Amino acid sequence: MAELKVRTRKAGALAVLPPGGLPAITTPTGGAVGVVTQVSAPGFSPLDLLYASLAACMVLSARIAATRLGVADRLGEVRADVTGEKAKDEPSRVETFTVRLEITGDLDPATKERILADAEDICTVSNTLRGAPVLHATLG
Length: 140
Prior knowledge:
By secondary structure, the chain is α+β, with helices and mostly antiparallel strands. 31% of the residues lie in helices and 24% in strands.
């Protein structure tokens, strides 16, 4: 397997909940997104953001996988449809994630399967979700 390259880009998120308002999320690199909590409200809920992180990581990882396999020039559009099922017991959490990857382009089914498998191995988000990361919560 190829050597792991560690990126030095600042990463993270800051959520600010104003009195009576909804959270606003910013990143150290200038990204911003609002968060919604009502079921019918347009926008991202916290769970949507989790699913979006996995979807974005998978499509980007698929492109990396195709490049490593030497088929990037034949890769068309890549879509990742991510859903999840919440656990029925406590604590509240997503128990199962489902990723449906669609790959277009001049690629045979075996190559598409290889891209899927490699993308799952490359994706930092899928690797994190499969693992048991340590979470430290403190008051600041």
